[in-house]
What we know:
Elements: E1 7-8, E2 22-23, E3 31-36, E4 39-44, H1 46-49, H2 60-63, E5 108-110
Amino acid sequence: MYAGGNVYFNGAKPYDGEKDFVEEEDHKINLSLMEKDGAYILDTNLYEFLPEIETSMISTELLGEAFEPEQKFENPDGSEILFDQDYFGEKREIRPLPGPFARKPEKAPLL
Length: 111
């Protein structure tokens, strides 16, 4: 298993072989889902404390080959995968923010 570029809060721990992670122990992260005007809003203080870390865009090249089939991770048509969009389809930067969003939202509406 490979993992990296993750940030751990609220006592969560990385697995023993993980590289390039941050354990943030100074701040408690809160998450709540609220409904406002018929839309759901994720209310969190995560982005107040999310540190700047070196991350990489996830791609076929970065993922390498799957263990058992010894084949690359790719799209059904054989083209390379590049996870360059966030949860909402917004373009990610070359060094993406950890997590599902491309930028630090004040409040992220969920679909």
